[in-house]
Design brief:
The protein has 23 helices and 15 strands. With about 700 residues, it is α+β, with helices and mostly antiparallel strands. The protein folds into 3 domains: about 450 residues, no CATH class; about 100 residues; about 130 residues, Sandwich (Immunoglobulin-like). The strands form 3 sheets. The chain has a 5-stranded mixed sheet with strand order 2-1-4-6-5, covered by helices on one side. The protein has a 5-stranded antiparallel sheet with strand order 3-12-9-8-7, with no helix packed on it.
Amino acid sequence: MTKSPLSNLRSSFSKWSLAIALLILTWGLRLCCLEAVPPGWRDDELINIHALSGELLAGRFPLYFTGASGHEPLYHYLHAGVHAVLGFNVLSGHILSIACGTLTVALTYTLTRCLFGRTTAVVASLALGTSFWSLMYSRTAIRHISVLPFALAVFHLLWRSITCKSETPNPKSQVCHLSFVICHSLLGLLVGASLYTYPAARLLPVLLVLFAAYLALFHRSPRRREQAALGARPGSTRSVNPGNLRSYWRGLLITLAIAAVLALPLGIAIAQGRSEAAAQGIGADARLAELAVPLRELRAGNPRPLLETAWTTLGMFHATGDPEWLYNIPNRPVFNLLGGALLWAGVALCLWRWRQPRHFFLLLWFALGLLPAFVSIPPASLSHTILAQPAAYILPALALTEARSRISNLKPPMRLLLLLILHCSLFIFLAANAYRDLRDYFTVWPQQSMVRFLYRADYRDAARYLDAHPEITDVAISSTLLGPWDRLALEVDTQRDDVNVRLFNPERALLWTAGDAPSTVLLTSFPRPAPPIDGFLEEAEPPKTISPHLTLYAIRNPQSAICDPQSAVCNLQFTNGLELLEARWVDEEPLLLTTWLVAAPLDLPPMPIVANPPPPGVYSGPRLAIFTHLLAADGTFLVGDDGLWVDPLTLRPGDRFVQIHRFALPPAAPAGPYVLELGLYDPRTGERWPVLGSDGQPGLDRLLIP
């Protein structure tokens, strides 16, 4: 009897409604609350956005980025396109990872359905879509998640190529042969393109070759009895044609040849970008060399670090997880105890059924995905094992659905009882892990103080406060000044264009903005003011607590440039626009306090945004510093304290700042008197800025103060 169109429509709706609902849930979880979780921007995100994608937006198009310890380019090219359209903001920074994460869940459903059926696919993709692991990398502007859509597409296309002849009426026809060539050509393009995403993709060709070796060793016979050992029902999407397995090597050659041609330019670029300083994170693939501590120890004859790292990594699903705050609540395992038990039950099932290609393939995928964490630090890294992420959620789903299949063959009384227990276990697995993961990701993790520090949450809080108070147009904000990243985080998060932000490190400096009104100063939770800087704040009006991590001060500005009577020197302007108002010793310890005025727009050398670590041979340090050297009476250098603890790119004419220089005399230092040598210089070139004389002409390039 032929089904009516309405029946077909209902069948299609029933078939796809759950998948569509799952996709909507996945997209929603990755898109919601982006302003709050992650709580701010971490270094790697800002480097990706401003240094790497920014290089593309500036018109330079490298095939491989040697900065930031080496980066494949595809994610950054796509990211640059997003920023060119949407600008720099929270949504544009994360939307590419959100799309990759959502596509990963969708392709996990498609691949798992092809391999193990619809029920396993629903359970696996639902667990993955609500997982802490997937949410973390789907909502962070880093490239790790971009490898998974390519890997899953490769696996799905690979399996379809193996099973296609089972579903083709005439497998020897020219149409089927053409489809075979097209399929493996597309596979080659996907494998080659995946190598431009993340280093874990380099395991994909290895996986294909190992799987081909497995098929060659154990599935060469086309006899029908082999069919039962290979998969499920003949003709189903899960069955495998043994004759097609014999031709797999021909398709593999096509795939690997195309992938090699596509990846050759990248390989050449990586080889050319390698640096002798790779172990310090400099140059192409430097991150791999930097983290491969267990391998270096193994080459030195010490296998213990490798064994310990491998053991810890195997326990990441049930015992001890990733130890880093950046990606995890330290040592939190991927699953709860039930989820961990189900995962290893799935591994045991695949080992038991290793003769079936689909089970062996899943096991091989999972093992190779974990391999990078075996040979690198830290162990159990969620980043290094990213390729194994979908497999880690397919395995427990497979264990549950296989148990259901076995129970269905039992007699009714026992079957009903065991099915009830199984369905309860399934509900507990999905509900308990979803509750645990969603709570930990959206509530627990972003509130931790170390996470807030690493992700610059205080600066997002400061940006929100400034957006809500348009009357504040000039503000000084505390910062560690470790690169331009605090400033860039504020620029991305602040929605206003009329606010001028200055940055200073309160451990060594304090800044007053130009004008006669009290200066608005925002202090973050770290760093905290140190003596004698804290004394200036104690003289200010009582502070206002904006949040538990942000405090506002209104500090009265100095009214004149007249020197303190104890000052050794005053009102000397350098040629770059800075004017030294005073320099005086504080207390009895050798501690110097200098006060500076931005007398004119600063004349500074170019300070481009450079990735950290920088590319080989590229300077990324400061271009302006104050040198203070304590000399013996005969001019011998004793001790110095150089630095600039304000961000010179944020300074405006009329701004003033004080900073302190500390000196620890060496034990063998001669008795005084001493002479202080002071001036300004470029740390990159060593060139000094001279002082303007009374005639307005450049004079000496240093001050000698008794």
